[in-house]
Every structure is written in C-alpha cells, then in structure tokens.
Amino acid sequence: MRLERLQAVEVLKMDGEVIILNQETFAVTKLNGTAGWIWEQLDSGLTQEQLVEKMAAEYEGADTEQIRADLDRFIDQMSGIGLIQRAG
Amino acid sequence: MIERWQRFGSLLVRLRFVSANAAAFTKHTIGDQYVDVAPGTEPDYSLTLEDGYGENYDEVTPVGYEKNERGDFRVSRADFLVESTADLREAHIRFYNYFGLRTALLNWYSRILSRLDWGMLIHSSCIVQDGQAYLFSGYSGAGKSTIASMSQPRPILADETTVVEIRKDGRILIHDSPFRNDFKEPYREGPVPLKGIYLIKQSLNIEQHRMTKSDAMFALFDKIVHWRHENADTIGLIRLSKTLVDRVPVYELEFQKNDRFWEAIS
After folding, report:
1. What is the pLDDT of residues A67-77, one digit of tens each?
2. How many domains does chain A have?
3. A76 lies in a domain?
4. What is the DSSP code (8-state) at residue A82?
5. How far apart are the first and last CA of chain A?
6. Do B252 and B215 touch, CB atoms closer than 8 A?
7. What is the DSSP letter of B182?
8. Domain for residue A57, yes or no?
9. pLDDT score, position A16
10. Under an 8 A CB cutoff, do A14 and B245 touch?
C-alpha cells in the first residue's frame, strides 16, 4: 500500500514546526519534528514498509518493531484527518 | 452626487455620496480626511455610497455572497449591500445605518487588501512610541480601547481596527486607520514600522510572554477582519499571517488598568 499525501494543502514551516493547511476545509494540523520529517519523505510514493526502513535508518538505535507500530498509529491518525491516504 | 477623495492606507479612493445624509454617515464612520487631487487623476478604487437601504440586522443571519460569470459580485445582509466589479475597482455600497455601513466598508476594504496581497485589517488598537508602532489585540472587552486611553498622549494609529501593510521588501508598516471608534484624531506622519504585537489580558500582574510563531498565527486568525467568500483570498491571507508572525514578535501581555505596561514592553 503506497502512502499518498493530500495534494490540496499549504505547508507552512515556522521555527521548526510544520503546519499543514487543508486548502478545502481550512483545517490546520500542526506536526512535530518527526511527523514533519515523515511528511517530507512522502513526496515520492513510498509504501508503509519502505517508510519504516527509512525511519530505522534515520533514527539509529530505535527499535524497528516500535517504529512500525508507532508509524501505523500515526498513519491511522493522519488518515482520519484526511492528510494521508493508503492507496493502491 | 457629492464627490470626495480619500486615502485608505496607500490607496487613493474616489467616494461618491448619493446624498448629504450618506456623506454624513460616512464621515462618522471613516472620518473626513479628504484630499485634493489634480484634475484628470484616476482613482485606484471608486466607491459610491447610498443610504436608505434595508433594515436592522438580526445579528444571526450569515452574510450572503453571489457572483456572476464575469466575477462581479454582491455581498448582502439585512442592513447593507455591496455590489462590485470583479476587479474591485468600482463598487456601490447601500446601507441602513452606521452598523451596516461600517461592516460594508470593512468587507469592501478587507477584500481589496487581500486581493492586492497588500496586508490586512486586524481588530486591535495601535499606538506609536519612539517612532515604532505597538499593536494590541484581544477579544471584545479585553481592553483595546483601555490601552489607547491609558497610553495617551502617545499618538494613536487605531483604537479598534488597525491597517497593517506587509511589504515585499520585508517591512511591516501600520497606516493611519480611518475606522475609528472613540479616538478620532488621525495620525498624519505617514506609516510607522510595527515593533511588536501584544495579545492582551487584564490581570493583577504586568507581564509579557513571547509566543511561538505557530501559536501566534493561530491566535491572530480570529482577530483578522475577513469574510471567507473566496478560498483563494483566504489562503492568501493565511500566507500573509505567516509572514507577519515570521517578521514581528508576538507576546501575551497581562496588564493592569494603568499605563505601567509600557515599562514592560519598551
């Protein structure tokens, strides 16, 4: 399952925070550092498992199982808000 | 038709009053700092003002918005009607009373500022000290007028609605506001750079706390004068708000009912 970002958004970066503005609903979502990093990675149509691998490489020393579980929860949340879609 | 010319921020507007009554109401709402212009001058914007329209507003019904295929539009409420060409250059305001006229003027002007990407109107008071502008915003009753009153004799750029210019060169400048409530004396020295934004709260203490940019931006959203008629305008305004908090520090300010907060902020 590829992860796709909502296209109709404005990304505002301020002082290390990333704010995503949904251009249709005007809902705003504030992403912390890790979430912002994940958002950046998703411009190239990764699968969730590929993203887990990238995170394990980026966050050395972190437990891969933990990453997988946390990421799944995060994607569920972002999916619920409508910012990320599990597609294909 | 009575014709007068007036500056709104950096824009030159030709006002046409259908009656002396319309002129009197308008003067009460935005003052009468009319300017003389050379014959043949073209205005940036033209506005016709007509009284005798509609009835009292019920405080509930949302403002109506319609446009035709050319993009010409009408904004309507029980106590006012704004009709405008798509490019905003020619508009006609019909109003019932002061409240209707004031709201119509804010709707008309805020739309122009947004379309030009020039800046925005913020519900706030704004005071000059040492050649810098300090903007004070808060909910109704928080103390914007109190701040203006307590700050005398410092010059007042606004006591209710501040005109904020966001320049492409990086500067944020405050222009004299025509939308005055109690403190009607205009500020004639030209636009003033904005030093800081203070979100105010009356308190037993006098303290200021710097806000993060994102918190500041969110806090300002509901203080900006805007009607969400067109998504593109709203998105543009959000971008301008980001620019504003990127360039100007925003603080929470607790203040007592006196002028001692000036020691804390300057």
Report:
1. 999 999 999 99
2. 1
3. yes
4. T
5. 6
6. no
7. S
8. yes
9. 84
10. yes
The CATH code of the domain that includes A77 is 1.10.10
- CB contact set of B141 (below 8 Å; sequence gap of 6+): none
Mean pLDDT computed over every residue of chain B: 95
Write the ipTM: 0.81
Mention every residue, 6+ apart, whose C-beta is less than 8 A from residue B143.
Answer: B136, B200, B202, B255, B257
Pick among A12, A22, A24 to test the B interface (most B CBs inside 10 A): A12
CB < 8 Å to A23, chain B? 231, 235
Chain A interface, best mutation among B210, B212, B214, by max A CB count within 10 A: B214
Has residue A2 been placed in a domain? Answer: no
Question: Mean per-residue pLDDT for B174-195?
Answer: 95
- Say yes or no for a CB contact (<8 Å) between A14 and B235: no
Find the domain containing A77 and state its range. 7-82
Is residue A69 one of the residues assigned to a domain?
Answer: yes
pLDDT digits (tens, 9 = 90+) for B53-70: 999 999 999 999 999 999
**Cβ contacts of B234 on chain A, cutoff 8 Å:** 26
Tell me how far apart the alpha carbons of residues B107 and B164 are, in angstroms, rounded to a whole number.
16
Cα distances from A76 to residues A28, A85, B72, B97, in angstroms, run 17, 9, 43, 52
Q: Which residues of A touch B226 (CB under 8 A)?
A: none
Q: What is the pTM of this model?
A: 0.92
